[in-house]
Amino acid sequence: MGRRLAGVVTLFILWVNVALGQSPVDSPSEFLGYDLGDRFTPHYRVVEYFRHVAKYMPSHVKLKEYGHTYEGRPLILAFVGSSEKIQNIEDIRRDNLIRAGIKKESLVRPQDTTALVWLSYNVHGNEASSSEAAMKTLHSLTNSFVTRGNNSEVWHENTLVIIDPCLNPDGRDRYVNWQMQKAGFPNNTALDAVEHHEPWPGGRTNHYLFDLNRDWSWQTQEESRARVTEYNRWLPQVHVDFHEQGVDSPYYFAPAAEPLHEDITAWQKEFQRKVGEANAKVFDKHGWLYFTGESFDLLYPGYGDTYPTYNGAIGMTYEQAGHTTSSTGVDQENGNILKLSDRIEHHYASGLATVRVSAENAPKLVTEFQRYFRESETSPKGKYKAYVVSGQNDPVKMEELVDLLDREGIRYGGPLVKKPVRGFDYRFNKSKEAINLHPGDLVISAYQPKSRMLKILFEPRTFVADSVTYDITAWSIPYAYDLDAWAITNKMFVSQLPPKFNKPREKQVFRPDAYAYVVEWKNIEDARLLAEVLGHGVKVRYARKPFAVNGKNYKAGTVIISREDNRHIGEALGKTIWDLNGKYGDKLRAVDTGFTEQGIDFGSSSMVFGKSPKVALLGGQGIDPNRFGELWHYFERNLAYPVTVLDTDYFAKVNLDSYDVLILPDGYYSSTLGGNGSERIRDWVSDGGKLIAIQGAVEALVSDGKFGLKEYMDKSEEDKANKRKSDLEKADLLAPYAGRERRWIRSYLAGAIYKVRLDNTHPLAYGYPTHYFTMKTDSHRVAYLEDGWNVATIGSSKDLVSGFVGSDIKPLIGETLVAGVMPMGRGKVVCFVDDPVFRGFWKNGELMLANAIFMVGN
């Protein structure tokens, strides 16, 4: 009774305050106890402020906790609107999805044209003015319901604002905590001061050091999965992603720069300009500098502007000067001091201007939003009207793909017709007149509301109107997953029932006395099973040659678990194995003999004994945080295999003999390994260690000159390349100054897909066909190994299947190494010229990395 009375009293006080025109909520400065901009606010205090506002303005603010970060911090959304909007919030959401065609129902409120404006802050943790601006924006929006009295602002009537104050709390707190420790009192604005030099890995990324602003479409991270799930429950008409850039850069807002994806509509471009004009009026009034249309394109689908755009919104990036080097104040080249309070004010101003221009155009925004999805469903763009994917060869990847489609809200089913269809064959990179369908195929029709998103994720080649883009230009899912797939030119009718691409399990009978247990080596789930087997102390062997037993053929790479090798476990072996077998879907098969029907027997020297390797992963200063994070995430969340992270700060003191495998991620190694770092690694490899070098680490081995790696095939090729470069440079002497950017892209390779020749008889390629699709993200090239195994190689420039490659670089990519293994004494060096697990979405390389860890050298 007392609690109910307290609630009534609180509501009465709120009513009195509102009636008197007084805000019942504190401003951010009042609540925090310091002026906003004097210091950075930890995430928990940001959350507390949002809860404070929601508590005292319940008729205008609804708060939702939609997930948690890896480190346990809450992810929240605030829904801000009139009392009528908040009261009917679920009806508004439902109607919005009905207009998009996601729900096939009648509108609940057909006359309502509420526009949804979603503001996302601080996806990059060290662009930290964003969350501060989010608090000020929330206060201003809610306060307007009190101060305006009966004269409501236009946004009150037809807009619901959704605020995510921090997309990356783990990264933000990493930065904020460091700032609290290092910032001077008062703040030292000189760029040389320690507070402007953030240490590795920086606060930009999340716990696993993933760039969450590249993860919207793939959702490899917990934060992305939670956010995109909630985003697709609402599908706003307008979305703004707030960022920061260099300390001397003027503010950036829409319209965006080329390249714009060809499927971006005229209305989306038009409204970006309206928003730009609205922001410009505010910035002109204050005399603030800004620019538009020169950078920040709309192409790669993983961004916080492109992903919303491809889902029917007006997606935009706003960029404020600041970033990691700014602290709470920093000297600028024009003599001004850029203060945190300035950064907050600019983001606050652009956010409110965007809300207001959206409100002024709400009916048009809702109408065009509906048209976007209806046209997508009835008249899908592009020549391909369906996509067919076969999961027969790799049901594990197929399950991952279906999970992604479900999260994207993309509909799929099975084939209803058996006659052949026409289309493009991804694997062979060519059109086919007759593609035969099978009952287990996955069919994704383009005739659906999410058609544009589907096209962008699956299009074999992305049309790039302007190649000056700062991210990858190819990402097609069939290549990333390396699944048999076809883009179909026919309209296809799809069954409502999803296909059964998983073959029926071969149910096993519990056999504790089996001679051995056999695991095929086909996909990353087999590697997870092996990792767990080894974690139980079980010893294994790897087949180096094929064999047949119990009427079934097994390829090289098959894992053998014999009773003889595991005497130390005794009778518990069978129970351990069968518990794992149930967990992994009956992947282990019991056999009663080591005498095979064909190929090698179980006691053959080609059944190589393999121990559980102790793996070290190098991180720290000089290592690319994103690439390091991919590997860290791969071990902990994908492979579930223990890894010891070493730091470059103390690497020189580490006893490498404690480890069997050392992984060097992409990075800059010129001063990373210490004075004798390379020599220590060479000695360790020669004594039996296994070094796995990736991208920049391979370049370091090339530069070292003592690992047997070369940049060019021979001297004549180098001379030829140098002459071509010299000729181009001479031609550039008389070229117009204005064309310098166009000349620069001749040597540009941001991200393109190549079909690679693969020697699948080598342990590095076990479980693969005779090809592999690689994501090449730079122009670095390594010659074929003269003393080693060239496992994955690019034959010529014709192996390019998708993406932009500059005209100077394109002819030089041929006859180069992608992945190889080189012996060194008793050890091995595994080279990955390209990143095998790029951004966590390049599924095609996951098994190859597992091969490098477990198969190579055993």
TrEMBL record:
Gene3D superfamilies: Zn peptidases. One of its GO terms (cellular component) is extracellular space. GO terms for biological process: proteolysis. The keyword Cell membrane does not apply. Pfam families: Peptidase_M14. One of its GO terms (molecular function) is metallocarboxypeptidase activity. SUPFAM superfamilies: Class I glutamine amidotransferase-like, Zn-dependent exopeptidases. Coiled coil: none annotated. Residues 40-331 form the Peptidase M14 domain. Signal peptide: none annotated. Its cofactor is Zn(2+). Keywords: Hydrolase, Metalloprotease, Protease, Zinc. Belongs to the peptidase M14 family. This is Peptidase M14. It comes from Fulvitalea axinellae. The lineage of its organism: Bacteria, Pseudomonadati, Bacteroidota, Cytophagia, Cytophagales.
